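Dear H.,

Thanks for agreeing to be a second pair of eyes. The structure we're designing against is below in token form, covering all 396 positions.
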């Protein structure tokens, strides 16, 4: 029988190292995927992630399995698997119908090896721009090396998902042809304008007539948090900035407020909905999930015209600035509030609801996965299609 989302035998497994106590977009994507599949009696979902010790989830389905991995120094709690063998064996034990790898490291190689042994498709998701991240830390000399590595790795997957057009273009430049754009989504019943929390501004010591800008994310180099803070000096005293995330620069400006990492989506939505606009200086976004979450809360967005941000933001829902410098960011904020910024925020909410609900996004992905399970074709390292044996014809 062909396997489709209506077939009870469809079992999907995800594996990633992007799972930690302060995880961001990848974890929210995987949790949304889990919730969506839980509502489909025809599908089963398993997730394999790193942790301090071996463990299974406590619920009866035991859908989440944790394998021990080395904790990254200054890595916000992320852990890095050093050996692929235990991950390969755990995936083989799960015996899914398709495996999705969410990072380009050890777990990706384990996913490919397990899929080959099981005779099932291996799928990659290009969540992270590894070449750019390495170049920021090591210099541009590393780009050709990382590009060759990524090209070889991703050409060995049976299919690749990219969260944005810009990331799909990067895969094409690496010679990866079997790609589809799989955008992320937002739960518009949680992230909504009515999530505003009365009294939150008073609790933060923000005047009621202030214009509150907000950013949520990690304090990493490519987010340019220092430029967000510096933009306050380019703006008049009405403007305050709220930073939400681990490692933010507490006390670095009198009109700056900082809240530690927020794991609960309802709490994050309350902070976002209580602000007036999102100020986002990231110029290397692979998708920009917090942008979408802010839009769903009815916030207009000031962002940088780079990375995937322009795929979400235009003049109808905010302002784009040419660089992630404080002066440019401040000019974007000024232009936004010279307009009818409330109407712009309302347009942002409408766009999020109309185009980015999790349900349609994940239904599209499940359709692609079911097609891969049916087709019995893969692409080899050269990009040419080759036959692969269906699950059950290879001994585990």
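And this is the sequence the design step returned. I haven't edited it by hand at all.
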């Amino acid at each position: 029988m062909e396997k489709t989302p209506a077939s009870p035998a469809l079992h999907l497994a995800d594996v990633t190292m992007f799972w930690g106590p302060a995880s961001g977009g990848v974890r929210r994507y995987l949790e949304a995927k889990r919730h969506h599949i839980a509502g489909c009696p025809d599908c089963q979902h398993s997730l394999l992630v790193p942790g301090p010790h071996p463990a299974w989830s406590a619920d009866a389905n035991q859908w989440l399995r944790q394998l021990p991995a080395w904790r990254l120094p200054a890595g916000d709690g992320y852990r890095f698997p050093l050996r692929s063998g235990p991950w390969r064996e755990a995936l083989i034990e799960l015996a899914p119908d398709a495996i999705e790898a969410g990072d380009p490291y050890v777990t990706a190689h384990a996913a490919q090896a397990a899929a080959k042994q099981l005779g099932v498709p291996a799928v990659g998701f290009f969540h992270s721009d590894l070449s750019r991240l390495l170049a920021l830390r090591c210099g541009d000399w590393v780009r050709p090396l990382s590009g060759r590595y990524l090209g070889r790795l991703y050409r060995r997957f049976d299919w690749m998902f990219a969260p944005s057009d810009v990331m799909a273009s990067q895969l094409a430049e690496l010679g990866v042809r079997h790609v589809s754009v799989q955008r992320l989504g937002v739960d518009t019943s949680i992230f909504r304008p009515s999530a505003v929390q009365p009294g939150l501004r008073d609790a933060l010591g923000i005047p009621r007539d202030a214009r509150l800008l907000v950013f949520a994310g990690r304090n990493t180099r490519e987010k340019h948090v220092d430029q967000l803070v510096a933009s306050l000096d380019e703006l008049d005293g009405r403007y305050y900035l709220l930073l939400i995330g681990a490692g933010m620069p507490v006390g670095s400006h009198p009109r700056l407020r900082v809240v530690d990492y927020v794991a609960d989506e309802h709490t994050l939505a309350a902070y976002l909905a209580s602000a007036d606009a999102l100020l986002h200086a990231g110029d290397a976004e692979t998708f920009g999930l917090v942008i979408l979450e802010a839009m769903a809360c009815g916030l207009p967005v000031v962002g940088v015209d780079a990375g995937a941000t322009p795929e979400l933001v235009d003049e109808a829902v905010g302002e784009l600035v040419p660089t992630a410098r404080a002066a440019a960011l401040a000019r974007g904020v000024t232009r936004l509030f010279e307009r009818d910024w409330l109407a712009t925020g309302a347009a942002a909410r409408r766009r999020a609801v109309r185009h980015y609900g999790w349900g349609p996004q994940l239904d599209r992905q499940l359709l692609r996965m079911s097609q891969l399970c049916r087709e019995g074709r893969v692409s080899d390292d050269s990009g040419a299609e080759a036959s692969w044996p269906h699950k059950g014809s290879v001994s585990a």
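Two observations from my side: The radius of gyration is 22 Å. The CA atoms of residues 118 and 394 lie 6 Å apart.

Warmly,
E.
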